[in-house]
Automatic annotation (TrEMBL):
Residues 33-123 form the Methyltransferase type domain. GO terms for molecular function: S-adenosylmethionine-dependent methyltransferase activity. This is Methyltransf_11.
Length: 157
């Protein structure tokens, strides 16, 4: 299980890197929300590309750590199911391996869409443990260790 945690961490960096590449190298003038961003690392990466970055999370300890980083993004403690932002506040939403941990993924997606400006985009990844070729023991261990509430397929998202 310890190796599994490392493997998932490596995959998360690859996924997030791909999402950032899809967002583009120049994010100047764009406002980006990172949903369930933990310490704000990925929001900080968008800020390095010029974005005005905001990271939200419920995990206060991760956010407190994030505030100690060299150039932290704006960090907001809140629930992804009730975002405290006005409609149309962001040009893009980033969410890395988070939706599967929410009690209600549909509500979180609706909230992400609500805070997007017209024409805005959501860049997200989710665990693929619902695939038929996922090992049941790996899936169950991952769900237990990381508090996964739901599994999704590409089609179900």
């Amino acid at each position: 299980v310890a190796f599994m945690g490392h493997q998932v961490h490596v995959c998360r960096y690859r996924e997030a890197g791909t999402l950032l590449d899809w967002m583009g190298r120049d994010l100047a003038g764009r406002r980006v929300l990172d949903v369930a961003g933990g310490d704000g690392y990925w929001a900080g990466q968008t800020a390095k590309r010029g974005a005005e970055a905001v990271s939200i999370d419920l995990a206060r300890s991760k956010m407190l750590y994030g505030a100690t980083l060299a150039h932290p993004p704006s960090l907001v403690e809140c629930d992804a199911l009730r975002l405290p932002f006005r409609d149309g506040s962001f040009d893009a939403v980033l969410s890395v391996c988070a939706i599967e941990h929410f009690d209600d993924g549909g509500t979180s997606l609706a909230e992400m869409a609500r805070v997007l400006k017209p024409g805005g985009q959501i860049f997200m990844s989710a665990d693929v443990l619902s695939r038929s070729d996922a090992w049941p023991k790996l899936r169950d261990a991952h769900k237990a260790k990381y508090h996964v509430q739901h599994t999704y397929t590409h089609e179900s998202l």
